[in-house]
Each structure stands twice: as C-alpha cells, then as structure tokens.
Automatic annotation (TrEMBL):
<dbReference type="InterPro" id="IPR050624">
    <property type="entry name" value="HTH-type_Tx_Regulator"/>
</dbReference>
<dbReference type="GO" id="GO:0003677">
    <property type="term" value="F:DNA binding"/>
</dbReference>
<protein>
    <submittedName>
        <fullName>HTH-type transcriptional regulator SrpR</fullName>
    </submittedName>
</protein>
<dbReference type="Pfam" id="PF00440">
    <property type="entry name" value="TetR_N"/>
</dbReference>
<dbReference type="InterPro" id="IPR036271">
    <property type="entry name" value="Tet_transcr_reg_TetR-rel_C_sf"/>
</dbReference>
<dbReference type="InterPro" id="IPR023772">
    <property type="entry name" value="DNA-bd_HTH_TetR-type_CS"/>
</dbReference>
<dbReference type="InterPro" id="IPR009057">
    <property type="entry name" value="Homeodomain-like_sf"/>
</dbReference>
<feature type="domain" description="HTH tetR-type">
    <location>
        <begin position="21"/>
        <end position="81"/>
    </location>
</feature>
<keyword id="KW-0238">DNA-binding</keyword>
<feature type="DNA-binding region" description="H-T-H motif">
    <location>
        <begin position="44"/>
        <end position="63"/>
    </location>
</feature>
<dbReference type="InterPro" id="IPR001647">
    <property type="entry name" value="HTH_TetR"/>
</dbReference>
Amino acid sequence: MASTSIESFYSEDIDSTKELPQKQKQVLKACLELFASKGFEATTTADIANKAGVSQGTVYKRFKTKEQLLQAVVHPLFSKTIPRAAKEFAEDINQYKYDTLADFLKPTLHNRLTFATENKQIIKILFMQAANDPKLLNELVVPIKDVLTTSIPKVIDTLKARHLLVDWDTPRIMEYVLSIGAGFGAQIILFNRKLDLDTVIDQAVEFLVKGLSPDQ
C-alpha cells in the first residue's frame, strides 16, 4: 500500500496554486515543515525566511501576522491535501482482494500507523486547528468518513459473504477494528511513543482474528 507523506502532497498542492507568487509558495512550504519540526511558537520569521530562501520582509508581505500565516498554511491542508491522502488510502484498499481477515488487517494497520508515525507533527497541527473551527473540522472529517463508510465496510461485507468473518453487523466489527488502530495512533501522535510496528501489528491482528473469526 502507498503512504505518500502529507508534506509531499502539500508541496504539490501549493505548487499548483496559480494565485500565489513563487516566493509565497516557498514561504508556505517552509512554514509547514518548520511548524511540524519546531512547533508554531518556536518558529521565528528568520527561520521561515532562511528555510524558504527569501527575505524576512517577503514572509509577511502577503500575510501580516504569524496567525494569518498559520491560517494560510493550514487551509490547503484541509481543502486539498487531506482529501488527496484519504483518496489514496481508499484506492489502495479497493484494489486488492483479501483472502483472509489477516490479509486485510496487516497491510492496512501497517499503512496507517506508518502514516501516523511519519506525519504525527502535522496531524497534531490539523487537530489543533480543527478543534477551534467547525468548518475546518468538517473538512477534516468528510474525506475520512468516506473511507470509513465506503471502502472498509465493503471489505468487511465481502469477507462476511465468504464466511471468513463473524456474521455480526458491519458497524460493530468496524468499532473493534478501528478502536485498535485508533489506540495505537493516539499513542504515536499524542504521546510520541515509538512503537515496534511489526510486533504490535502482529499482536493486534492475532487478537482481532481470534475474536472476529466465524465459529468452526
């Protein structure tokens, strides 16, 4: 499964924005990288200018305050980048045929937990901004909800139809699977835990397969 980084998608999205001058594109891309690595408060105008290869005056030529600059940085993340990342994940799920529940769970969990590990600082920024703005929260939820209500349930329904999964309501099965993934994701993103992904995924898959396999 593919796992394109948020920064890579974001860079492409900014480069494709016709209304921004090239130097302002450099500023936004530099800001995202620095806010993710150093944090918003710790990042200075000099840091941004140096990273973007522009003068400090250029940094605030279009955006007059640091807060306006942050808003300019995150808006494309919500409107363009996250939907693209969600679409990539959904397309990956849909292109495979899974012969067992483990065949679905192992690559899917590995993909999402790797994505969380590599993008955890940016994901923190996203959730912090979304928590204070209902519109941004909706933009964040919609593409994720599409994956959760379409792609994953389709796999679960197929496995149930082939008698490879316990015959419970699909939402109930989803709750168990998602709670495991979200639990590890929270440890990575919120608590900065460095997990041995191969080990924790093997253990999680063993637990879920035992609990969700049909009675013999």
